[in-house]
Write a structure and sequence with these properties.
mainly alpha, Arc Repressor Mutant, subunit A, globular
């Protein structure tokens, strides 16, 4: 299994390498990708999905908010909850990046057999 772990690490570096040219880092990518694929989410739900602590997710959301890539509003059901959504600018940025990223993932794992893919999903 060490080979799979090494492959995941190398794959991650390869897959995130092109992000620099887009102006976002891997943290921004993970947040924007979650919002693209899951829709508007409470801040406290995004953090665990993208492996960030409450403090880190707040700083990251503030950064994306300052860049106009996301919006943040109070939940109508609970004023303590803040809902984060992609803006049109955020969607325009992340959609093509995600399409390219997904295509790269398909290429990287094209030769993996079902057993290897299952092992990766549980890693």
């Amino acid at each position: 299994m060490a080979g799979i772990g090494e492959g995941v690490s190398g794959g991650r570096e390869y897959l995130y390498a092109g992000l620099e040219e887009t102006g976002i880092d891997d943290t921004d990518f993970r947040i924007l990708e979650a919002l693209l694929n899951k829709g508007p989410l409470p801040v406290n739900t995004i953090g665990p999905k993208v492996y960030l602590t409450p403090g880190s997710i707040s700083v990251a959301i503030d950064r994306l908010l300052d860049r106009g890539l996301v919006s943040r509003v109070e939940s109508p059901e609970d004023r303590r909850v803040r809902i984060v959504s992609l803006t049109a600018k955020g969607r325009e940025l992340i959609a093509p990046i995600f399409r390219k990223h997904a295509a790269e993932i398909r290429k990287v794992f094209a030769d993996a057999n079902p057993k290897e893919l299952r092992a990766l999903e549980t890693t």
